[in-house]
Amino acid sequence: MNIDSVLQPLQHFGVNLGLSRIVKLLANLGNPHERISVIHVAGTNGKGSVCAYLSSVLTAAGYRTGRYISPHLIDWTERICINEQAISAEELSQLLQKVQAAVSGDDEYPTQFEIITAAAWLYFAQQQVDIAVIEVGLGGRLDATNVCSEPLVTVITSISREHWQQLGPTVADIAREKAGIIKPGCPLVMGSLPADAEKVVRSRAEELKCPIFTPQAAQQISPGWAEYQTLLQYPQNFIQYPLPLQGQIQLTNSALALATLEILQQQGWQILESAIINGMANTKWPGRMQWLTWKNHKLLIDGAHNPAAAQVLRNYVDSLNPQNVTWVIGMLSTKDHTEIFQALLQTNDKLYLVPVPDNNSANPQELANLANNICPKLNLCQTYPDVSSSLASAFTNTNNLVVLCGSLYLIGHFLGKLNPS
User: Fold this and answer.
1) Which of 11, 54, 125, 227 is most solvent-facing, going by the fewest CB within 10 Å?
2) Chosen domain end from 281, 303, 324
3) Residue 76 near residue 92 (C-beta atoms within 8 A)
4) Are 276 and 361 members of one domain?
């Protein structure tokens, strides 16, 4: 059975936030989620890399560790991993059949995300994981992952204005939705949030009597190494660890992961410093500030798909001191194109615009018009039918740094073509 043939037809249900369908579905499957110890991670940006650090360290510590993330880059199986190994296509197919068979005929049919989320809970329960790191899909309060009444720790990495169509127009509205993952008495690790978002999250955590942990960003101590100041009674006050993921933001994201691990240590989980060092060293999070080679050219790729992520990418690019930058960008129509361009584009940059295949893509020509208005002193602004032709042009007669970004779906499509399975 082809996984796409099961999941693709469910796409027309779209985003339909609410817990009633997933709760019924999980009850029909025997409530597998109730048999799993969970770390629940929400946030606008950073939640994926925090999940990657946590699952890598917990695996290095010897625990059977589940990880559930979304979206995938190339293949559905990436979403569900145990000890960093993706589920096999055969196992996922069987699980999806089981989940679909558990949908009651008279109930509202679950969404695509609810079906695969139920499959993840079922797989982790069947495989008897010791712990599962669960990334929120969208928002938090009404997200299909938000079914655990007693997570070990909840994490809110960052909040900025994204998915406001579903979550509400202001940062405070979005914070209210993300704060929906906070559970009574459960420790909360909180990243640096805008003041009005922090106020909402804090008041919810205080109302539910949750201890709140706000770690400082780690310090860079040498290329590829960082130092984190501990929050709790660890044998010493600092941990030095390798930091393989690129960009200043990883000093923040890795600190959130290490604070979460400290709380687990306090709860009795055995996580030695050697496991932290090995786990951090082995963390992989593809498609995010990743360097690779395309036809003998060095290329930076990043799924920066909202203004905050675009600013993080621009900061990283600036830290490399390039003479000029060539951007190859494709975006979904629902994204904040203006603010993303404002964060990325500077005088003399070159811009190549492409469609995002198989998705609700923004029109490259309309993006070109917008980009020229925002940054009239671009060296070049052109549209191309696809990534390959745009990259071929981008690398012709230039010493510019070339960056492919704008949508995780675009990055996934590109990586799929690069490494066809």
Assistant:
1) 11
2) 281
3) yes
4) no
Q: Give me the pLDDT at residue 12, please.
A: 62
Q: What is the pLDDT, as a whole number, of residue 320? A: 96
- Of 216, 171, 164, 161, nearest in space to 198 by CA: 171
Whole-number pLDDT of residue 165: 62
Query: Do 306 and 187 belong to one domain?
Result: no
What confidence score (pLDDT) does residue 14 get?
Answer: 63
Last residue of a domain, one of 281, 306, 332: 281
Low-confidence ranges of the chain (pLDDT < 70): 1, 12-14, 162-169, 233-236, 420-421
pLDDT score for 6: 85
Predicted TM-score of the model (pTM): 0.94
Give pLDDT, residue 164: 56
